[in-house]
From TrEMBL:
Entry keyword set: Hydrolase, Magnesium, Multifunctional enzyme, Nucleotidyltransferase, Repeat, Transferase
Annotated EC: 2.7.7.59, 3.1.4.-
The protein, known as: Bifunctional uridylyltransferase/uridylyl-removing enzyme
UniProt xrefs under InterPro entries: ACT-like_dom_sf, ACT_dom, HD/PDEase_dom, HD_domain, NT_sf, PII_UdlTrfase/GS_AdlTrfase, Polymerase_NTP_transf_dom, UTase/UR
Chain ranges of the HD domain: 504-626
One biological process term in Gene Ontology: regulation of nitrogen utilization
UniProt keyword Magnesium, yes or no: yes
Activity regulation details: Uridylyltransferase (UTase) activity is inhibited by glutamine, while glutamine activates uridylyl-removing (UR) activity.
CDD domains: ACT_ACR-UUR-like_2, ACT_UUR-like_1, HDc, NT_GlnE_GlnD_like
Coiled coil: none
Organism taxonomic ancestry: Bacteria, Pseudomonadati, Pseudomonadota, Alphaproteobacteria, Acetobacterales
Length: 938
């Protein structure tokens, strides 16, 4: 800074907080006003200010990206440097305000008719922290409403700020107006809490602070606290009520920056403190609401979130607050997170972020009730009339439960579980002070491992009414991680994909919530079979523990099902489960993906598929347990995963396996089943001429008769008969199946190589997603292909393709594709692509060829990134290899597609020649865009 000559009082810099004397003026002030009363022209001033703003922004960015500054330090540095810029603009503004005629050179606010005003910062800027693209919130404050010159000065300054490209939030109020507006508006109260003097008449600001402090005392903290809680609840509902969403909102989401700010506002409102360390120690306001360790935890969370936010702003070049999939690897790499063991750098980074969000939630639950009670007084604690509560060491305050004053958790750690069980049994809330005590006492849960009473209490809570709610409480306060050490390894663990919406432990608690819903009959319509079976299981405790542990081994590398089954053998005895229950839990964890993978990846009309799963399950009880566990697991993944089609597949698989188990693990011979199917079809066609029925029965090969029910056979007969009568080369029929949330599309035409590929391409252009398919060549050389599709643009994640105009267009597109009048490659390119934020998720291509899953077909499983036209490309590659597709099973997990095809060669045999298999694998990898290395599992 260079020295300066004297300036009029109106241009005086803010006094030093420590010395109370003017600090040196920023150089920019002397550039803007080289001589008192002679400011440079506005255009020249704007150029100078733009250069200064650019220097400020680049200086902070360079220091931050060189890791010389943490996020919080950078935010404070940016705020401080912006102070100098705003002060210079203020000084220049005052120098530019024209005095009245007849008063040349006069101080524009020297006249008594013009009240002096002060420029104050509010919002984040008022707290002295700024993000790279944050708004600058200003308050023009005066003792009484501004006169014409004051209003002219405010307008001049604002236009200058806007011309600099700054986003400015502003208000012009007198002290009286501030208090009147704030009286019933907590948002204005909050803004004024952040008020910080920048420039002007400091005496005005001092009078405001004194008046506002008095007003706060009169209003009381109760109304402010209630408003902040309501605001927070609405914010969480909008941006995510869980701190573990895989694309979190850094600022407004639960456990984000705004939650920390809320604690600061409450402390500032109640005690006038400006920093969390001021609440540490017995002599602090409130008598020591925080320990030094907790204050440091607040600072770490604050600093870490600000660091992530700075990187996010610089990477995107805008005020972006949502950490989307495409930004997570970039920000994680900038922060130095690299692969460590089995975890990618991005997963390590996100785990740190989620653990930080969890800490913010815990610290908020710890501090908020302490502020409330310090400000309003301790609650009136009463001994309950219920003798059981008294015996449990529980008391009542404000109609909520908390620990009795004479009970110490250190001496009786199991009281934590007794408190939770008491709240559940009586339908009561935990008192905020109880949450505070649980958080501070959670480490005592280590002493409860293997304790008989604690295990009994825990299992009672886990298997009782509304157990997901209470498991979430135990997780949030940190009890679960101490009680079950392996649980701590999945806390905050995310999977870098677009399929899972929650972190692993939050997904697990959601699965318990689904189990609660099934038992309470809330999912009778969405999952009728599971809702019925859940009441029939005999191993109820084992089911709940299996849901709790089904993903306990994720993040360790290897097969999490196998590792988890081993962990279950260790954990279950410590929880007090009997040996047979332990064995059941371990088996369920090992096989918790068996039903879903079979239903969605295999042909459940193939007898071997049913026999294979029946051989693994062996018992009707295990089948019931496995189906209920599967439904809970799937519905807990996210709102768009479950749909009617998947529910139908699971239901059909269950009944077929149950039928086999009931019959002693046997199925009728293929010829017998075909004969029965033909008899049922003939019965449905009894009103038709005998010759027509016999003709239809002669058309289908055995695979066709075993793939459909009699009603479908009757519809096909009518479709074929009409095509033969009219001589139509192509027939397309669509049928919306609302119960299954799919649309059935049936195509009957002359068979030729690549037919299914062209149909798949036409459906992709139409905006339909194929979820299952049956492809049959009839004895007359015609193809009868049946495909079940859903709407790719459906907001519900899997609705039927049912709009009439879409169905009409779909039929036209199929006809155009088969006649060659539609350029499929060109049209598929026009189909809407996925959002940019999803492109960062990598899905390596993989081909698995299995000759053991079916007795009659080679089964090909493809894993790759989903995209419009993927099915067209891979089926074209299969056809080019000279293979016939018998059925296709299509599943997507976020951006990952898993497509399974049952195929034969032109002679109707499996493909077993090694050279042919290698050629097929290479062609398919090229089609899905995957690597070319050997990925088979023959």
């Amino acid at each position: 800074m260079r020295s300066s000559g004297a300036l009029p009082d109106a241009f005086a810099a803010p006094p030093s907080p420590s010395a109370g004397t003017p600090r040196p003026l920023p150089d920019i002030v002397l550039d803007l006003i080289p001589r008192p009363g002679e400011p440079v022209p506005r255009d020249a001033a704007l150029l100078l200010l733009r250069r200064q703003l650019g220097r400020i922004q680049s200086r902070v960015q360079e220091a931050f990206e060189e890791h010389a500054l943490s996020g919080l330090t950078a935010a404070r540095m940016l705020g401080e440097l912006t102070d100098g810029l705003i002060f210079a603009i203020h000084a220049y503004t005052l120098a530019q305000v024209a005095p009245e005629q007849g008063e040349p050179g006069a101080n524009p606010f020297a006249a008594t008719t013009e009240p002096p005003f002060v420029l104050a910062a509010t919002g984040g800027y008022g707290r002295g922290v700024l993000g790279p693209y944050s708004d600058i919130d200003l308050l023009f404050l005066s003792d009484r409403p501004l006169g014409p010159r004051g209003r002219r000065a405010v307008e001049f300054m604002l236009y200058l700020l806007w011309d600099l490209g700054l986003k400015v939030g502003h208000a012009t109020r007198s002290i009286h107006e501030c208090l009147e507006d704030a009286r019933t508006d907590a948002t204005i109260q909050t803004a004024l809490l952040d008020g910080r003097f920048l420039a002007g008449d400091q005496a005005v600001f001092a009078r405001f602070e004194e008046a506002f402090a008095g007003a706060r005392q009169d209003w009381g903290i109760g109304q402010f606290l209630a408003a902040k809680r309501a605001e927070r609840a609405a914010r969480h509902k909008r941006y995510g009520d869980s701190p573990y969403l895989v694309e979190p909102h850094l600022k407004e989401g639960r456990g984000g920056l705004r939650d920390i700010q809320t604690m600061y506002w409450l402390a500032r409102y109640a005690f006038g403190v400006k920093r969390m360390p001021e609440l540490v120690g017995p002599d602090s306001p409130g008598g020591g609401l925080l320990t030094a360790r907790e204050a440091r935890a607040f600072k770490r969370a604050w600093d870490f979130l600000w660091t992530v936010r700075f990187h996010l702003h610089y990477v995107t070049g805008r005020a972006e607050e949502r950490l989307t999939f495409d930004l997570q690897p970039v920000v994680g790499a900038r922060m130095g997170y690299t692969r460590h063991g089995k975890q990618d750098g991005v997963e390590r980074f996100m785990k740190h972020l989620f653990l930080t969000a969890r800490d913010v939630v815990r610290l908020s639950r710890l501090l908020e009730p302490a502020i409330e009670r310090a400000a309003l007084g301790l609650p009136a604690v009463s001994r309950p009339s219920d003798a059981a509560l008294t015996a449990a060491g529980v008391a009542v305050a404000d109609g909520k439960l908390l620990f009795a004053p004479d009970r110490v958790v250190e001496d009786d750690p199991a009281i934590m579980l007794r408190l939770v069980r008491a709240a559940r049994d009586r339908g009561m809330e935990l008192h905020p002070l109880a949450h505070r005590a649980l958080i501070r006492s959670a480490h005592r849960a280590q002493a409860l491992r293997g304790d008989t009473e604690a295990s009994t209490l825990f299992l009672d809570i886990l298997t009782g009414r509304d157990s997901a709610r209470w498991m979430r409480v135990l997780n949030e306060v940190g009890f679960l991680s101490r009680f079950i050490p392996d649980w701590a390894r999945i806390v905050g663990l995310m999977q870098f994909d677009t399929y899972h919406v929650f972190t692993v432990e939050e997904h697990t608690i959601e699965a318990i919530a689904v189990l609660n819903q099934l038992e309470q009959g809330e999912l009778d319509e969405a999952a009728p079979v599971a809702s019925e079976l859940v009441g029939q299981v005999h191993s109820r405790r084992a089911l709940y523990v299996a849901v709790l542990l089904h993903d306990i081994a994720k993040g360790r590398g290897g097969d999490h099902s196998e590792i988890g089954a081993g962990l279950a053998l260790e954990i279950c005895p410590r929880l007090g489960l009997a040996p047979e229950e332990t064995e059941t839990v371990s088996w369920l964890v090992l096989n918790h993906l068996l039903v879903s993978q079979t239903a969605f990846k295999r042909d459940i009309d193939d007898p071997k598929t049913i026999l294979d799963i029946a051989e693994v399950v062996q018992s009707p009880e295990r089948l019931r347990l496995l189906l209920v566990l599967t439904v809970a697991d799937m519905r807990a993944v996210g709102p768009k995963v479950w749909n009617g089609w998947k529910a139908t597949l699971l239901r059909e698989l269950y009944w077929r396996v149950a039928e086999v188990l009931a019959g002693g693990l046997s199925v009728p011979e293929r010829d017998v089943r075909v004969a029965r199917a033909k008899q049922a079809a003939a019965a449905m066609l009894e009103d038709q001429p005998k010759e027509a029925v016999e003709h239809f029965l002669s058309l289908g090969y055995p695979g066709y008769w075993l793939s459909f029910d009699p009603e479908s056979h009757a519809r096909h007969a009518a479709m074929i008969r009409e095509a033969e009568v009219t001589g139509a080369p192509l027939s397309v029929s669509t049928r919306v199946l609302e119960a299954r949330a799919v649309t059935e599309v049936t195509v009957y035409c002359s068979d030729h190589p690549g037919l299914f590929s062209r149909i798949a391409g036409a459906l992709a252009v139409a905006g339909a997603t194929i979820v299952d398919a049956r492809i049959h060549t009839m004895t007359n050389g015609m193809a009868l292909d049946t495909l079940w599709v859903q709407d790719a643009q459906s907001t519900t994640g899997g609705g039927a393709f049912d709009a009439s105009h879409k169905l009409a267009r779909l039929s036209v597109l199929i006809e155009q594709a088969l006649s060659g009048r539609l350029n499929l490659v060109q049209e598929i390119r026009k189909v809407r692509r996925e959002p940019a934020r999803l492109r960062a998720v990598q899905v390596p291509g993989r081909v698995v060829i299995d000759n053991f899953a079916s007795n009659t077909h080679t089964v090909i499983e493809l894993n790759g990134r989903d995209r419009p036209g993927l099915l067209h490309d891979v089926t074209a590659a299969i056809s080019e290899q000279g293979l016939q597709i018998a059925s296709a099973h299509i599943t997507t997990y976020g951006v990952r597609a898993v497509d399974v095809f049952y195929v034969k060669d032109v002679f109707g045999l499996k493909i077993e020649n090694e050279r042919k298999l290698a050629s097929l694998r290479a062609a398919l990898l090229a089609a899905i865009g995957g690597p070319t290395e050997d990925a088979s599992a023959d």
